Amino acid sequence: MHDTTVLLIELGAVILGLGLVGRFAGRIGLSPIPLYLLGGLAFGHGGVFPLKASEGFIEVGAEIGVILLLLLLGLEYSASELVTSLKTQYPSGIVDFALNAVPGAVAALLLGWGPVAAVALAGVTWISSSGVIAKVLTDLGRLGNRETPVILGVLVIEDLSMALYLPLLTALVAGLGVAGTSVAMIVAVGTVGLVLFAALRFGRHISRAVSSDTPEMLLLVVLGLTLLIAGIAAKLQVSAAVGAFLVGIALSGETAENARSLLTPLRDLFAAVFFVFFGLNTAPSEIPPVLLPALALAAVTVVTKVITGWYAAGRAGVGSKGRLRAGGALVARGEFSIVIAGLAASTDARITPLATAYVMILVIFGPLTARWTEPVVRGVKGLVDARRTRRETERAGTGQHGGSIPGAGEATAPDPVGGTGHPS
Q1: Which domains does the chain have, with CATH numbers?
Q2: What is the Cα–Cα distance from 377 to 365, expressed in whole angstroms?
Q3: pLDDT, tens digit, for every residue of 376-405?
Q4: Could you read off the pLDDT of 299-354 as tens digits, one per residue?
């Protein structure tokens, strides 16, 4: 009875704290993810108020949080949208992977962490946060902008890539060897292909079978089916998160919309628990030694994400302003980076604190780069053009002719960013 009482008190305090932190983050226009991570650091091993009685419950809640995150992500996309994105955005996806995964892999190798850690850290730096970015685009009123479909297309490619990447990482962490890893990848590719085929051909029938006019029944069926498939996927070394994502893809239409509205509050609750649990497993004393590498990695990958957005939006014929906005919007990292670091924590204990610091930095700076990348670059370009014009004017007025030249001061005004080419 005593243990149950302590468990209730600890859980009540944690959930109440998460609610207050979330309200505070909303008021200052910040994603609550870094505050959840800080809360986990405060209540974890080596923290100010370590939790003991509720740690096991929070661990299970964190697993459910990951599953619900991926399920809701899958519900956002239909199979046809995924196939269309693959056909139109795959060059941008390749550039995105090359520019953003390579820095993480190189950093892990330079730090001497080994090849498995390199694969894990590559994923941490590669994948943007769909949840944070979607909220930022909504808050900035950019859902109707020309560059927004490009941003969403890149995110779709990243999310679908996780269906292959997570099984690969899971097999490597488990030490399955070349044969075991190959089998895991074949199973993953076959599963993804089979689910996409079934969703395209029989999506309406699947959704009709799951659908219910009673919200309670729909919630129970979708949640139960997701947990079942996630468990089977984990047993097959495909990753529980991928199984949940595929369930979301298989559902479409009104069923997906109703399930999304019912499950969103549950996702938000358990996702918050997931971020807290990740922080619980990170001792605060482990953060300072990796802070400089995290800052350096964040600085590099801010630039590479901006370049990714610039390239992807350019392929769609978006002007310079829109291309800069696309790049700035893709900077935020979040849930996937934490999931990946959690999977790889057993490979090298230093991955967890580095990923925590890295995500905290970019989940804070992501909304700022989304808002300010385009105006800052435009302002800098304006200053550079103004200085160049002034120098040309001075050179023309006091140059070879030794005096002023009529009309020399009538310099041509520089073109603003985005003033030529396609409209932004």
Answers
A1: 57-377 (1.20.1530.20)
A2: 16
A3: 888 888 888 888 888 888 888 765 554 444
A4: 999 999 999 999 999 998 999 999 999 999 999 998 788 888 888 887 777 888 89
Residue 106 CB neighbour total at 10 angstroms: 16
Nearest residue to 271 via CA among 117, 418, 67, 55: 67
Angle between helices 240-250 and 215-235 (to 10 degrees): 140
Token digits for 365? 């700076």
- pLDDT < 70 positions in the chain: 1-2, 44-55, 237-238, 398-424
Among residues of the chain, what percentage have pLDDT more than 90?
22
Q: What are phi and psi of 80, to 5 degrees?
A: -65, -35
